[in-house]
């Protein structure tokens, strides 16, 4: 195992020597979500001096940055004598995120180039561009180099264009920036986005996950499938009935259908109330497709896999890649890698697992999904 922990300041300058006497590291990279982690350390004075607000923690694995980002809780410190706590000098637990969490704190302003007091009642529209361009534009103008000076994330830059994604249009107003980016990434061909540290910069990049279903396989026979839950259910939407703005004359109506799902199960209609005045840029069509995608998911799979010598996360497959899971029933399911979890300690070494499956089965609890849906609806109301 070759894991090293370093602390940098907000300018990405390393502070002091690598952290020593750490006993437990637990860190998770997530697809299109900020990663998170924690580490337990002996609270030496020189260590505590580095664990200051605004500083960052870097996890270096095999010579490369595996995760780097802000310390949300730089000091969770316990100390005691005579059995009252951790013996001197005590123990400190650090909770940290990756740098994508910085962008998660921003909203999509309708006029990103203007002061908050000058924001109009209109929406921000980006039309007929690649999904990659749309995501990069939203990030750049709200928290990147193209944002107002007060909103720029220090040392934050855009990675070179990857040339990925289908053509999309997006309308937004005061929504969570990463919520909109996730929506565009899904609509634009299932793209991924992430941050990575490169020298003195934090680079934001959009990428196209790979199809590794032929080479990345998990099964009990291969020894890399630890467990799974599997559920197949009927779709909740097969026909999205979209209505445009009630201010438009004539008011536009668009229907988007999943004929195969309706034929295999039955017809299920859902009304989608949009603020778009027309479908000239495909906005109503996109909202209908999003409703179908959210309501389809006939297969929910939550699978935990483990690294082996023949198949390793981060080397043979990555976040967002499509892989194959062979179930003991003989059925094969192909789905996305949603997260990669690293656990390490100097005594036991590394243990890496991956979570594979559909979003509903593997990510947010129901309450979080409801809150996000309410946020989207409020955004649509604000756009009127």
Description:
- The protein is α+β, with helices and mostly antiparallel strands and 384 residues long.
- It has four domains: 3-96, Baseplate protein-like domain - beta roll fold (Phage tail proteins - horseshoe like beta roll fold), CATH 2.30.300; 104-208, Phage tail protein beta-alpha-beta fold (3-Layer(bab) Sandwich); 217-232 and 299-361, Elongation Factor Tu (Ef-tu), domain 3 (Beta Barrel), CATH 2.40.30; 239-295.
- Helix content is 20%, strand content 38%.
- The chain is built from eight helices and 20 strands.
- It has helices at 45-50, 100-104, 131-143, 177-187, 259-264, 283-295, 359-362, 366-382, and strands spanning 3-8, 22-30, 33-42, 56-61, 64-78, 91-97, 124-130, 156-158, 167-172, 192-198, 201-207, 217-218, 225-232, 239-243, 253-257, 269-273, 299-306, 322-326, 332-345, 349-357.
- Strands 1, 2, 3, 4, 5, 6, 12, 13, 17, 18, 19 and 20 form a twelve-stranded mixed β-sheet that branches. Strands 8-11-10 form a three-stranded mixed β-sheet, covered by helices on one side.
- Strand 19 and strand 20 (349-357) form a beta hairpin.
- Helix 3 (131-143) runs antiparallel to helix 4.
- The longest helix is centred in the last third of the chain and has 17 residues, at 366-382.
- It is globular and about 75 Å long.
- The relative contact order is 0.13.
- Residues 361-372 have low confidence and may be disordered.
CATH architecture of the largest domain: 3-Layer(bab) Sandwich
Shape: globular
User: What is the straight-line distance between the termini?
Assistant: 56 Å
Mean pLDDT: 88
Beta-strand percentage?
Answer: 35-45%
What structural class results from the helix and strand content?
alpha+beta
Work out the helix count.
Answer: 8
Which spans have pLDDT < 50 for at least 5 consecutive residues? 361-372
C-alpha-based Rg, rounded:
23 Å
